[in-house]
Every structure is written in structure tokens, then in C-alpha cells.
Amino acid sequence: xNSLKALSDLLPIPGYTVIILCFFFPFFxxxxxxxxxxxxxxxxxxxxxxxxxxxxxxxxxIKKSSPYAxxxxxxxxEDASAKEGYAPVDDRQEAGKDKKDIxxxxxxxxxxxxAVAGITIHLIKxxxxxxxxxxxxxxxxxxxxLLFYLNFQSKIEDMxxxxxxxxxxxxxxxxYGFGTAFYIASLMFIMLILFYGVFIYFLKNNPEPVYxxxxxxxxxxxxx
Length: 224
Fold this sequence. Notes:
mainly alpha; 11 helices; 5 strands; 10% strand
């Protein structure tokens, strides 16, 4: 019969690997109906991304979904550039605030570092009681995701009713939301927390399900 100990040795590598892979997929989406205008990957939130790169990504996404929409975007950008030259200085400064680069997000960085640290610790054979490290890393990683979610959720609520002109006088409604990869990575952290929480509980109160039927001296040698 497989013990919890065997599962505790097997779970971290694939668990943290899935979390890290999720960072290469969209964590945040901007949509117009069923069309994705722009996606922000987890890696973008770790390293930061420039406005120019975001604009290019949006153009490519719109171009794939609708060539007509792409041409409308180009026309809108030209009109916006022309109007900006006549805008008051204060208005241009205010507009610049809305068009700034996305800086590295500290909460997402914490989550990413925790996933990398989890794999690193698990591969180091000399470390004892790795389950404690995995529980700490998982809690910290989920906490980082939670803070990021709450921070952006408050902004999404303010932006959900906003409109994007696209040359149509602001009549196109834009929606904002989190990507599937963000939720998958969060669920992996939750799974690790639950598993190692149960593992530590049984280890302290009833070690038999952890190691199986063993002699007491064998149990002490197997712990790490």
C-alpha cells in the first residue's frame, strides 16, 4: 500500500512545475465580447512589460480575430495622435498615466519565487523535514496570488463599465478578467497546502498512514 510519505516525495516536482508553466500563459485578459484584445502573461507580471510591447500584442491579437477591427484600431491611433498634439499639457500628462508600462508585480514575483524555491529545496537531498518548507512555500505563494487578485479585482470593478472608442465614440464595451492559468496555478498551491497540512497532522498524531506499518526505529530513520 502506498503511504503518504511516498506521495509527499512525488508531489512537489510536478506540482511546482505546473505552477511555473502557468506563468507562461495569460494571467490577465482584456476582451471585447468573445474577442481577446490583449493578454498579460504571468512572466509579464514578473519582469514587467512596456506599453509598446502591449500595443503590438493587442494589434496582433485584433488582427488575427478581425482584419477590419485591426484597420479601425490603426485609424483610431492616428486620430488619437493628431488630437494629442492639440491637447492641453495637463491632459497629456493625465493620459500618460493611463498609458504607462506594467511594472513587475511584487505579489506575483513572490508566488513565482516560491514555486522555484519549492523545486530547489526538494532536489537538495541533505535537507530534513522538507514538508515544512513545502507548506510554507505553498502558503506564501497562494498569499501572493490572493493579494494580486484582490488588488486587481478592485481595479476591474472600476474598469468594467468603461468603454473603448475604436473610432466609434466609446460605444464598445471592454471586459477584464483573470486567465485560466492564474486559477490553475492557485489551485495547485491550494492542493499542496491541503496535502502537506494533512501530512503534518498525521505525522504528529498518527504516523502509521504516513509511513505504513513500520518498526518505531524505522519510522525515525525515514523522517526527514
